[in-house]
Structures are given as C-alpha cells and as structure tokens.
Amino acid sequence: MGGNGDRRPRNKLRMKNPICRRMPRFALPIIKQHCRISLRNHQQKHRGKSKCLRNRLKMLRVEMEEISEEQRQIKEGQRQVREKFEGIELECDQLRKETNLIIQQSLSTQIRLAFMFQILKARENQELDKAAKLTVSLRELIARENQKP
After folding, report:
1. Is the pTM of this model over 0.70?
2. Which residues contact 32 (CB under 8 A, 6 or more apart)?
C-alpha cells in the first residue's frame, strides 16, 4: 500500500473534486463556456446579487442624504443657539452695567443724605460754622458728581 505500484492517490481530497485533481475540494468550480444552462444560471444568480447590491447601495445613499440633512439641521440649530446665547450675554453685560450704575447712585445718595442730616443736626445745635462747612462740602460733592460723564 502506498508504494509506487499502487495507483491510489494519497490525498483523498483531490479525488473528491471531479473538476480538477490538483485543486482542493473547497475551491470554486470552473464554469465551462460550452454549458449554456449552468452559465445562464450563474449569470442570473450574479444579476440577482448585483441587483440586491445596487438596491442596498441606493438605500445607503438615501440614508447618507438623510444623515447629511440631519447634520445640516443640527448645525443650523447650534448656530441659532450660539446667536441666542451671545444675545443673552450682551443683555447680561448691559444689566451688570446698569446695576453698577444704580449701586453708585445709591451710594452717592446715601452720602448726600448723611451730609444733609449732619447739617440739620448742626443747625439744631446752633453750630452754624460746622453747618456752613458741611454745606460747602456737600456742594463740592454734588459738583464733582455732575462733572463725571
């Protein structure tokens, strides 16, 4: 067995593939040109696969277009949100400035009221020279505040 006299093949896989003795059994079969029926069947199968592939490609293109549209809408939404946010920031800055101005005006009013109260107390106590000095100081304070832009 297995010697030169035996004509049995040593590799059983080669014998099981009737198309080619050298190719393993799992190789693709060669389609012969003279066999019209198998060629037609092969072409029909290939057309069916390519048609399925074309349909799948069309679906993928449609999905890609939808995704592109969604991305464009998201980008537009982000732009609108950015614009609104910038508008809110500007409003916030304006409110901060107005608040600071109101605080300064309030402090100035409190200082003037304190001067006026001291002037009234000085007059009540008959300290007219002190009342005169406080009145001059109050006028200077008001003049400085009016000079500020």
Report:
1. no
2. 38, 39
